[in-house]
């Protein structure tokens, strides 16, 4: 469960034991370096400012997952939790929370197939689209043949006796007629030729509309079958990773995805990388921070945001610390200190 304990002092006015602060979450809110057992991040920097203002003595206790940390808080092993702890109705039934110091949301991460040139042109080589093009060319050849058969004796200068040249000219006339371009370079002169042209005008109107709709449908279906997830409508049948106990689990179930439980963001992204999952649903700032640090991995994060939620410090239901923490949080916000801390880790917005 807990893998390290760090002691920090802020000139205590509390009992000698001080506060035990549980820490859990992902970068940039909690950054844990296992090599030297150091802890830093947005949440901890804000907490340290609060502790300094109140002259509180405390020690950190790190947990690998938020669920473990919440269990430890409920069992009295820690006095409060620091980290990207989402304030949800389910958690508020069991714990007290400070006012939110950051407004977050859920978003989706997936492999960015469109990052390569092939990924961009792949939809145009789908089997359905190739079949549609083959049918179109076959139809043009048939109409071109009919034009040639009807016109070769009446207009040999437009439709030569040579089948290759004559049928090619007939196909050109069919394309010009279908597109209503009307170059005027050739036109049927015989009754049979005009009947063929009239029939083709009517057929081409229906065919062109159906073909355009079919191409649009094929490209849409191709985008949905891509491993790049751009919207929640693509969730059905897809394996989506999320942290156990997080609001993302309900979000995945609501949109009929197959949930895959992980302990943290790093584990989720490893599964995405080795293709054991199709996507990851996680808090947006953590995903953006990860993508910025791992640009070579071609991660796609759409602009859509879901399940707006606040991050706050969590306390036991009988804690007397909440009001003090809220008061200092308000002062830090008024002094723009929290904004400065956010900019330090997330950059200026």
Automatic annotation (TrEMBL):
Please give the GO cellular component terms listed in this UniProt entry. membrane
The primary location reported for this protein is membrane
Q: Name one Pfam family in it.
A: SBP_bac_3
Task: Drop me one GO molecular function for this one.
Answer: ligand-gated monoatomic ion channel activity
Q: Ionotropic glutamate receptor C-terminal domain spans which residues?
A: 18-348
InterPro entries registered for this protein in UniProt: Ionotropic_Glu_rcpt, Iontro_rcpt_C, Solute-binding_3/MltF_N
Q: Which residues form the Solute-binding protein family 3/N-terminal domain?
A: 18-349
Q: Does the keyword Coiled coil feature in the UniProt annotation?
A: no
Q: Where in the cell is it found?
A: Membrane
What membrane topology is given?
Multi-pass membrane protein
Superkingdom of this protein's organism: Bacteria
Supply the alphabetized keyword list. Answer: Glycoprotein, Ion channel, Ion transport, Membrane, Receptor, Transmembrane, Transmembrane helix, Transport
Q: Which residues cross the membrane?
A: 129-150, 195-216
Name of the molecule in the record: Extracellular solute-binding protein, family 3
* Species, as recorded: Pseudoalteromonas translucida (strain TAC 125)
